[in-house]
Specification:
InterPro entries: Uncharacterised_pept_Zn_put. This protein is α/β, with parallel strands linked by helices. It contains eleven helices and eight strands. The protein has a domain of about 170 residues. Helix 3 crosses helix 5, helix 5 packs across helix 8 and helix 7 runs parallel beside helix 10.
């Protein structure tokens, strides 16, 4: 991907090198999860929860242990900031072209080891994720080395770009109201049915990642799409289950098979049309 010398996002917070992800929050992750659930299911209580969280915020303390980032880590930070800037520009354009209102830009936090979020505490083992409670994408970049060595992805910079675009896709789902509707619907479903809804949500985020790539083609290089597809294949539920447990249980899928994930990424990339991303109509 052609990225050097281009605009970098102002919405990236780099906590790498900070012990414990940079901050320790009084009360821990469990309380944060309770706050998030209360605000989701009882929106009328949101102002009171916000007041409590702001009070807790005053009790945050900075970790003092910090190391200097290596030149390679600094370069990686510049790369992901450039990709994140591309998502800002492109989703602003997509929202404008489709009369979806004003695109609210998310933030991204780079961390090492563990991190506290509005959705609770998380470790590197969680992999990259989006928290709807604070509209932030969280990434420990060490994940991508594991994706290559443990799960067989080709690697390359566009594999990282694909994952960032996928997580930003979850932000798009949040501000469009899709995620909230799905979570509510899941409350009345069996585990297998709820899992199918989760799969549709994840496949739509893959579609949105492909849609971003479609709009970003002037910066793509030969082999970029193959890197994205390799990453999508590696994180398919069937590929992961086969490697981790030696057998596949389709009813337990929550992200979709390798074939589904590649299919929906390519549909977004080839079509460039957000209206064709209704995974719920096609997959359920």
């Amino acid at each position: 991907m052609k990225w050097r010398g281009r605009r970098q996002s102002d919405n990236v917070e780099d906590r790498r090198g900070m012990s414990g992800g940079g901050k320790v929050i009084a009360g821990g992750g469990a309380i944060a999860i309770v706050f998030f659930l209360v605000k989701m299911f009882f929106p009328e209580a949101a102002p009171f929860v916000d007041t409590i969280q702001q009070s807790q915020g005053a009790q945050q303390t900075e970790q003092v242990e910090q190391r200097e980032l290596t030149p390679e880590e600094k370069e990686m930070g510049e790369f992901v900031s450039t990709v994140f800037a591309d998502t800002e520009d492109i989703w602003t354009k997509i929202f404008e072209e489709n009369n979806l209102g004003t695109y609210e830009q998310p933030k991204m936090v780079l961390f090492t080891g563990s991190v506290e979020t509005a959705c609770g505490g998380a470790s590197s083992a969680s992999g990259p994720f989006y928290c709807p409670g604070d509209h932030k994408v969280y990434m420990d970049l060490a994940f991508f080395e594991e994706l290559r060595t443990r799960f067989g992805a080709k690697g390359g910079d566009f594999a990282i770009a694909y994952v960032i675009a996928h997580e930003v896709g979850h932000h798009v789902q949040t501000i469009l109201g899709t995620s909230g509707k799905v979570r509510q619907l899941q409350q009345s479903k069996s585990e297998a049915e709820a899992n199918k809804l989760s799969v549709c949500l994840e496949l739509q985020a893959d579609f949105y990642g492909g849609l971003w790539a479609h709009y970003n083609q002037k910066y793509l290089e030969e082999g970029d799409i193959e890197e994205a597809l390799s990453a999508a294949h590696a994180v398919g539920d069937d590929a992961i289950q086969s490697k981790m447990q030696g057998h596949i249980v389709p009813d337990s899928f929550t992200h979709g098979s390798s074939e589904q994930r590649m299919k929906w990424f390519m549909k977004g990339f080839k079509s460039g049309d957000i209206r064709l991303g209704d995974t719920f109509a096609e997959e359920l």
